[in-house]
Amino acid sequence: MSVVFVPKRQRGKAEINQEVIQRLLDENDQLVRCIAEYMQRGRATECVQYQQILHRNIVYLGTIADASPDIPPTTQTLQKNGE
């Protein structure tokens, strides 16, 4: 189970900050790499548990994004996107 995912009993109580979001993104990166490695080895059935965690993390990040006020992108984000 993902250590950064907030359990039901703590929902609404957890402080969401950039560090938590970054840990989720880093964990998602590792999950994608792990899933890809298992798929390359032909072990698709072992991927299911990692795919479920990845799905849960993505839904959680989407929920955070939907609940967040619209914040204009930073200058650094704009530079990365080539705008």
Describe the model.
Belongs to the SS18 family. Residues 13-71 form the SS18 N-terminal domain. It holds the Pfam family SSXT. This is SS18-like protein 2. There is one protein chain. The protein is mainly α. The chain has a domain at 24-67. The chain is built from three helices and no strands. The chain has helices at residues 18-40, 44-67, 75-80. It is elongated. The mean pLDDT is 80.
Tell me the layout of helices and strands:
Elements: H1 18-40, H2 44-67, H3 75-80
Helix pairs in contact: 1-2
Average pLDDT, rounded to a whole number, is: 80
Beta-strand percent range: under 5%
What summary fits the major beta sheet? none
Spatial separation of the terminal alpha carbons: 38 Å
How large is the count of helical segments?
3
Give the topology string: H per helix, E per strand: HHH
Radius of gyration: 15 Å
Which residues sit in consecutive blocks of at least 5 with pLDDT less than 50?
none
Give the proportion of residues in helices. 55-70%
The general outline is elongated
Number of DSSP E strands: 0
The computed structural class is mainly alpha
